[in-house]
Every structure is written in structure tokens, then in C-alpha cells.
Amino acid sequence: MPVLPANLARRMATRNRDYYETLGVARNASEAEIKKAFRARARELHPDVNPDAEAEARFKEVAEAYEVLSNPETRQAYDRYGHEGLRGRPGPDFGDFGSFQDLFDAFFGGDVFGRRGPRRAPGDDILVAVEVSFVESALGAGREVRLEVVDACEVCAGSGATPGGRVERCVQCGGQGQVRTVSRGPFGQFLRTEVCPSCGGEGQIVIDRCEACGGRGRRVEGKAHEVRIPAGIAHGQRIRLTGRGHAGDRGAPPGDLYVEVRVAPDARFERDGLDVVSRLPITVTDAMLGTEVTVPTVEEEQRIEVRPGTQSGEQIVLRGKGFPVLHGRGRGDQRVIVDVRIPRVTSEEGRAAVTDLAERHLDEKSYREDEGFFDRLRHAFR
Ligand SMILES: [Zn+2]
Ligand SMILES: [Zn+2]
């Protein structure tokens, strides 16, 4: 089977459809009616409003029908001989257009929905990172964030002209910011609307340029922002400062500033959800006899009691000493996990003493069986 060039295959696929039917107009429709019908059909098929995958193919059919019927010469040939009458003429080649949007722009100059004037781009977002300590992530902190930001020039208030300086209407586009170019193709005229090359779409040309920004109306400035890091924030979370990003084109909104929080590790603590987890190493004798110790919390140090007979892996819970709920109520706990250190006994006398303890003072009742090792471990890492 011979392989057709893509363009030809596409034309053949649409060749059998009646152009008047495709546009939905009568055979005696006026030029204005044809144009109106085309715009209406094209709007329905625009990707902004029509997510249908077929929309692009249908738009090309509609565009082809319009190309033929909008040109009196090709329309006449079509009326007389149908598709046969157009044989030998090159079909409209949509292959030059990068995207569906480009194709639309070629027909409507980007104003298919009545948009006019240059499209002003909003400013870009900025992402900066700040590092806080573990304790600061639990209690909150303030940080000064310094960044280079594109901002409206303060000297000219973004106009690009010196105060009171001359600004003239662009001659090439007459202040519209757009120029239309008409090119005649085999299927009628192509109307393109483009951003005016003289004024870059501004519609005006600054004669007395602001010296501070060189007439661009924007310049890069070093800025500092005070950022409140809320209590309870976790590593990797971002704080958004609306409108603190780069300035947009004149009249367009600025971007946002995102501050990504990195929490530095702390040898004393780990985070587990809203809880702070810490480890408490104690001697085997302290575990046997009980003791009082001081443990660090994210606030101040706290005295806690270690009961006699405390097992390794047991948890001592300090209520409300964990992380606060971010932008909410309530607080997690601190879980202190006991780690009983078993000593090595090296001297003969020491060995004799421990043996004496084991044989004369400890029996089965000395050991609790209330909770096994694995149960405790499960509680430690929930
Ligand atoms: Zn300026
Ligand atoms: Zn212009």
C-alpha cells in the first residue's frame, strides 16, 4: 500500500465533506455570514473550551472550508465543480504551525475570545530555602530572607520614562500594540496579528528613558523579607508569601515568594508525627533501683522520675511537649525511650558481687512479665 504524504492524506480525509455543511451555512451565504459562522465554529473548538481530542482535527476541517469559501475565486470553483474543482491547487498546509494555539493565532491574531492588546505576563515565583533548628521548628522562629528580585523601578514607577519625560504613541501600530499582516495564499488571504515589533506590544515608545532602569521599567533589587516560621512546621514544607515574587509586566500581578523550610537534625530529638522522640540512656543500677533524671525537651529541661524496675525500651511520656498542630489546636507529646545500658564487669571482686546479687537477692519474682520486649519495641516505633 503506498504511503501518502501526511498533508495529502489529511486533505483526502476531509475532501468528501461539503464545505457549506462543515461551516453550517447555506450555499448562498454572504461573505459576512461565512466569516461569522467560521468564528463561531472555531470558538467552540478552541482548546480552552473544548477538551475533546477531536477538536483540533475538526478545527482544521472548519478552517479548510473557510479558506475555500472566503475566497471568491476558490468558492466559485468549488460551487461549480465541487472538490474536483479544487484539484491541482495546493491545499492549506497547517504543518507550518507549531501548535493548535499558533494555528488559532494565525487566523484570529490571538483574539478569538476578543482579547486585545499585548498579553502581559505575571511575574515569576521565587523559591528560597531557610534552615531552622529542630527546636525552632517546634516553637516557631523568625528569619530574614534576602533575595534578588525583579521589581518595578522606583524612580519611574515602572513607566520606563523619566518623571515628566516624553512618551510617544507608537507610529507603527498606532498605539494598538499589535500589527496585522495580510498575506495572500492559494486559498484566500491569511490575516496574522502579531505583537508590534517597534514597541514590543506596549503601544508607546519612551523617548526620555529612565536612567535608573534603562527604560525597562523594572530592575533587579536586593530585598529582605521578615518571614515568620510557624511553630510545628516540618522539614520540606513551604511558606507562601503572596505577591513577593518577581514583578510582572506592567499591569500584571507579581509572582509569589515560596520559602522552603529545612529542619536541621538534632542529636537529642527525632520527630514522629506530632511527637518528639528522645532516648534516655540509664545505668542498669538506676533502672533497678529507680532514679530521677533531667531530660531535654524542646522548651526547657525537665525532671522526670524513672521508676524502680524500668525496662529497656519503656517509654516515659511527657504530655503536651511535642509539636503544636500547624495553624490549629492541640499538641503532641514527647516520648522518652529508656535505654538501659548493661555494664561489663571486669574485676574479680565485681564479678563476685554480681554473682552474689543474682544468687542471693534475685529470683523469678524479681523479673516482671507484664510486657514483653517486642511489645515495648512496638510502642517505641508506632
Ligand atoms: Zn525606571
Ligand atoms: Zn507599536
Brief digest:
This protein has 382 residues and is α+β, with helices and mostly antiparallel strands.
What can you tell me about this protein's structure?
The protein has helices spanning 6-15, 19-23, 31-45, 55-69, 72-81, 100-108, 134-139, 284-289, 348-361, 373-380; strands at residues 126-132, 141-152, 167-169, 178-185, 188-195, 204-206, 218-229, 238-241, 257-263, 270-272, 275-283, 291-295, 302-306, 315-318, 334-341. Residues 1-14 and 110-117 have low confidence and may be disordered. It is elongated. With 382 residues, the chain is of the alpha+beta class. The structure holds zinc ion (2 copies).
Salient structural properties:
382 residues; alpha+beta; 4-stranded mixed sheet; 3-stranded mixed sheet; 10 helices; 26% helix; binds zinc ion
How would the blueprint of this fold be written?
Blueprint: H1 6-15, H2 19-23, H3 31-45, H4 55-69, H5 72-81, H6 100-108, E1 126-132, H7 134-139, E2 141-152, E3 167-169, E4 178-185, E5 188-195, E6 204-206, E7 218-229, E8 238-241, E9 257-263, E10 270-272, E11 275-283, H8 284-289, E12 291-295, E13 302-306, E14 315-318, E15 334-341, H9 348-361, H10 373-380
Parallel strand pairs: 1-9, 11-15
Antiparallel strand pairs: 2-7, 3-6, 4-5, 8-9, 10-11, 12-13, 14-15
Bound molecules: zinc ion (2 copies).
Rg, alpha carbons: 38 Å
**Average pLDDT reading:** 83
Q: How many DSSP E strands?
A: 15
Measured between the Cα atoms of the first and last residue, the distance is: 66 Å
Main β-sheet, in a few words? 4 strands, mixed
Ions, cofactors and other bound molecules: zinc ion
What structural class results from the helix and strand content?
alpha+beta
Q: What fraction strand?
A: 25-35%
Given the C-alpha coordinates, what overall shape results?
elongated
Q: Catalogue the unreliable spans.
A: 1-14, 110-117
Total helices: the number is 10
- Measured as a percent range, the helix fraction is 25-40%
Order of helices and strands: HHHHHHEHEEEEEEEEEEHEEEEHH
- Placed side by side, the strands forming the largest sheet appear as 10-11-15-14
